[in-house]
Design goal:
The chain has 498 residues and is an alpha/beta fold. Helix content is 43%, strand content 11%. The longest helix has 21 residues. It starts with 14 loop residues before the first helix and ends in a 22-residue tail after the last strand.
Length: 498
């Protein structure tokens, strides 16, 4: 087993110097890219290194299948709904390439000095011999990615005849030296990743599988033979097969492995992904995120994925909780800076302020369109809050809270009120502070977390239809009770208002 080739400087600059190199460059340069990745992957497996750092939730599903595909030297496709880290997986494959590889200097297709495939490199080596100049290509330059769209052509992927090259060089159009190479030949000795494969026109897919299998293709009617050394990997969304296009059968038959991706299987995995990807370190004030608020944000996506009014074929991207978390922190940041607070502590009212990050990512069925995305999003927040409270503190006593609202109590909650004021106002609701203390959601002296926990309890009661909530953030009587306001009662229960 070998490790990625990490030569010290200076690197050989000519073919003769490369042949005499004592670091074993000749042996490495003769490997195909699939053998190179296989070898480096075996080394990682033997050393128990992390195979794909930053990839969460796939250790027992996608990663083993991906490892098997690479060890088998397969071209492969990642099949899954949007927001399942397909592109991230492809981009992480570059870490399995050697740090640098030698090529014939000036080659557009990264010609191997020992096995050139282009006429340019073949002629240059025949003429210059051991004096052939050598260039070095780093691993980042060996990963080529393309988004497939219906207007992508054979010229974009494979290449086209360049009349200017023909005129300047005095070549006939059928000569390979007149060809302007596309993205796939330029990815030779590297990785070529094609996103959203079904969107690619059928005739372009034919060109792909022909060059994959036979190594030749016709450009403007002229046959071009290129023995490319490349790992081909694709992504596709199952929705695309019927909505926009399909993968032609001969190409699908030539893809060695089809690997299915999926959304996080547990809320905890989803929270880990969201925390890793979301931008929360703002550099203004320290951010202190209540764990139960982060869980509510993640559960919104989980609730949406099971809601019959949300299109399951489209899916609910993991980008939704990431965007929601960033918007929640932004709203809390705005409040803290305006009120002169020393830290940023998000709460449930900030989640409602992040509705635009939810509604824009929900594809609704007909029934959902009738209700409307904002109404569904608010319901998802309430359900997520209720599930979170049940998971964390289901045994707390809330009868006194419900009775207070049923007898006409009301409380206005705003995202623009300082934490201390909000916490004091929550104290006007009998039993609310006690319920939070019994829940263990906040430390006794932590009023910031306690205020957020009070909101969580109230949102849970709204979800259970024991308390009502208006769009203005007003908590009031239970929906099945006749309103009975006490004389001279302050509508905002303790003076808390927007």
């Amino acid at each position: 087993m070998s490790h990625p080739f990490r030569p010290s400087r200076p690197l050989p600059a000519t073919l003769g110097a490369l042949k005499c190199d004592e670091r074993g460059a000749r042996k490495l340069v003769l490997r195909s890219v699939k053998d190179e990745m296989r070898s480096n992957l075996l080394a990682r497996l033997a050393s128990a290194e992390s195979l794909f750092p930053g990839l969460i939730g796939y250790d027992d599903s996608v990663v083993p299948q991906l490892v098997n595909a690479i060890l088998a030297r397969h071209n492969f496709i990642l099949l899954g709904l949007r927001g399942q880290a397909k592109s991230r997986i492809l981009r992480s494959l570059g870490s399995l390439l050697d740090d640098v590889i030698p090529i014939v200097a000036g080659s557009e297709v990264n010609d191997n000095p020992y096995a050139p495939i282009s006429k340019f490199a073949t002629r240059l080596i025949a003429e210059a011999g051991d004096d052939t100049p050598i260039a070095w290509v780093e691993r980042d330059q060996r990963y080529v990615e393309k988004l497939a769209t219906p207007d992508v052509t054979i010229a974009d992927i494979i290449g086209d005849v360049d009349p200017i090259k023909a005129a300047k060089g005095g070549h006939i159009l059928a000569d390979e030296l007149t060809m302007h190479f596309g993205m796939l030949p330029r990815a030779n000795r590297g990785i070529f990743a094609l996103n959203e494969l079904p969107d690619l026109a059928g005739k372009v897919q034919v060109g792909l599988f022909n060059i994959m299998q036979e190594g030749d293709v016709q450009v403007k009617g002229y046959p071009v033979r290129l023995r490319l050394d490349v790992l081909l990997c694709f992504t596709a969304n199952p929705e695309d097969y019927t909505a926009r296009g399909k993968i032609i059968t001969p190409l699908k038959d030539r893809i060695g492995s089809e690997i299915g991706t999926h959304y996080p299987e547990t809320v905890q995995l989803g929270m880990a992904i969201t925390a890793q990807e979301a931008w929360t370190a703002r550099g203004t004030l320290p951010v202190r995120m209540p764990p139960f608020v982060a869980e509510v944000i993640e559960r919104i996506a989980f609730e949406a994925r099971t809601d019959k009014r949300v299109d399951r074929r489209s899916g609910v991207s993991q980008r939704m909780p990431i965007s929601v978390l960033e918007s929640v922190v932004s709203n809390a940041e705005r409040r803290s800076l305006r009120l002169g607070e020393r830290e940023i502590v998000p709460r449930l009212s900030d989640v409602y302020a992040a509705l635009p990050s939810i509604t824009g990512k929900l594809e609704l069925e007909y029934e959902g369109e009738l209700v409307g995305a904002p109404s569904i999003a608010k319901e998802l927040i309430r359900r997520a809050a209720d599930t979170t409270l049940r998971e964390r503190a289901d045994s707390i006593e809330t009868d006194d809270i419900v009775m207070w609202f049923d007898t006409g109590g009301a409380l206005q909650v705003s995202d623009d009120v300082e934490t201390a004021t909000m916490y004091r106002a929550f104290g006007t609701v009998p039993g609310l502070h006690e319920a939070v203390a019994a829940s263990g959601l906040a430390e006794p002296n932590d009023s910031s977390f306690a205020a957020a926990a009070c909101e969580l309890v109230l949102e849970s009661l709204v979800a259970r239809r024991k308390v009502s909530r208006t769009d203005g953030g007003r908590y009031g009587r239970g929906p099945n009770e006749q309103q009975r306001r006490r004389p001279n009662q302050d509508l905002f229960g303790g003076g808390l208002s927007a």
